[in-house]
Amino acid sequence: MRIIVISDSHGRRSSIDYALQSHPDARHVFFLGDNVRDVEAIADYHTDRIFHIVTGNCDGDTMYPVTELCTVGGVKILYTHGHHHSVKYTTAPLLDAAKKAGAKIALYGHTHIAKTEYIDGIYIVNPGSISLSREGGNSYAVIDITENGIMPIIVKT
């Protein structure tokens, strides 16, 4: 099972569409906030996919939660934008939330810096920003969930 993780599009819908077209086998798409309207518009053209969306600090009032939990491929995933978990300073509160939820993957955005970690049996993944990276290259994440394990990969665009 392949999933795509995208965050912080800030008005660049074409970047989201590029990521989705690059991975036609990914059925699940996680959007971690900051311009949820971008992914809503793109979702209309990708009805064969399941979109998991949370609101970010730049989204104002939306119908989406700040943090959510779901199961994909038998693996629990906690996903959030991250601004309520202080991710610009540390991932410890996010890790604690993932542990309490029984999640094996914790996804977050907000920092615009791509990062993957494996701590205490939990994959912590920030896809960076699909349009406004703070580290010299826009990015998103692809995560493969297989019977042999979980493999997160950061894709630079």
Tell me about this structure.
This protein is of the alpha/beta class. It has 3 helices and 10 strands; from the N terminus they run βαβαβββαβββββ. The strands form 2 sheets. It has a 5-stranded mixed beta sheet with strand order 3-2-1-9-10, covered by helices on one side. The longest helix is centred in the N-terminal third of the chain and has 10 residues, at 13-22. The radius of gyration is 14 Å and the shape is globular. The model has no long low-confidence stretch (mean pLDDT 94).
Briefly characterize the structure.
The protein has 157 residues and is α/β, with parallel strands linked by helices.
Structural class: alpha/beta
Q: How many beta strands in the DSSP annotation?
A: 10
Helical percentage: 10-25%
What is the averaged pLDDT score?
Answer: 94
Radius of gyration, whole Å: 14 Å
Query: Terminal Cα separation, in Å?
Result: 22 Å
Note the beta-strand portion: 35-45%
The strand line-up of the biggest sheet is 3-2-1-9-10
